[in-house]
Each structure stands twice: as C-alpha cells, then as structure tokens.
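JOB MANIFEST
job_type = single_chain_structure
chain_count = 1
residues = 182
[input]
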Amino acid sequence: MAFCKNCGNNIPDGATFCSHCGTPVYDTTSQAQTQQHQYGTQQNNFLNSDDVTAEFDPMDIKENKVMAVLAYIGLLVLVPIFAAKDSKYARFHATQGLNITVLSVAQAIIYYILATIISIVFRGSIIFGVGGVLLTILGFINTILSIAFIVLAIYGIVNAVQGKCKKLPIIGKFDILGKFVK
C-alpha cells in the first residue's frame, strides 16, 4: 500500500490517482527502470553494430580465427588478404582491419603535413608562441585519434577471437577491400 505524496492518505495498489486529492500517482521504480533502459539502449547503440555472424560457415570461422586477428595488426592485414582469399570470414575481418590501417596511415600523413606547415609558418614562435599552441593542439588531436584506432582494433580482435562478425563502429560500413580486390 502506497501513500499520496500530496495529502498523505493511503492509495490502493494499482491506482493512478489519489482518491482524496486527485494527485497523480507515479510508480517510481518502473519509471527509473524505463529511464535506465532508455539510457542504456542509447549508450549501447554505439557498440551494437551490425552482427552478420549467421552468414558465415562455422568451419570457416574456426579455421581462420588467426587470420582474422592478424587483420587488425597494422600492415599484417595483408596476410589474410593474400593468404586466405577463399575465406569469407578472414575477408570480412581483413576489410575491417584495412579500414583501420588506411585511416591511421592517412591520419599520420595529415598530421606530419600540418605539423610541417605550422613549423614553417610560425618558425620564430614555435616554443612559446602561436605555433607552439597550434602544434600542441594538433598533437593532442593526433593522440586522441590514435587511441581511437587502437580501441577499434582491440574491438575487432575481440570479435575475431570470439568468432563474431560485427562491423566496427563508425568506420565498419566502408568496404575498401571490395572496391579494389575481387
């Protein structure tokens, strides 16, 4: 039996309003659970990417887990691309790993070009001036992006070891490998 928050009278179970003062009765536990579920769902949507594991042969998954893991370790992505051409599972993870590798190489090239330009333009003020501030900001952004790529690689390795085929968040939808290699 609950009590009305407004007048303090008893409210029978299942009632939606207080029979004495008309104040609406809220079930705070179900409200909290609903809010927690909504926030949890929003938070988990980032990591709950497309899981297409059911489309793959279980024997192929079992035989090519090592190749799938290699796909997320930098240039070792080339090993499953060339050594496991017939494995749909290894190819899936090679595509995901190639996305990370290409983007991280592009990030490094862009970083070094911008750092060089800043160093040339702000030559006299690199340590304490505008150039130093810009290089610090650029270095911070570069570090954050590098950490993000490492996290994506770890996420891919965990999926590969578990025999899952989940696309990487944000960058997993791109099929760089399919564009160039058939």
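[summary]
The first helix runs from residue 28 to 45.
Helices lie at 28-45, 58-63, 65-70, 78-83, 88-121, 130-161, 176-180.
exit_status = 0
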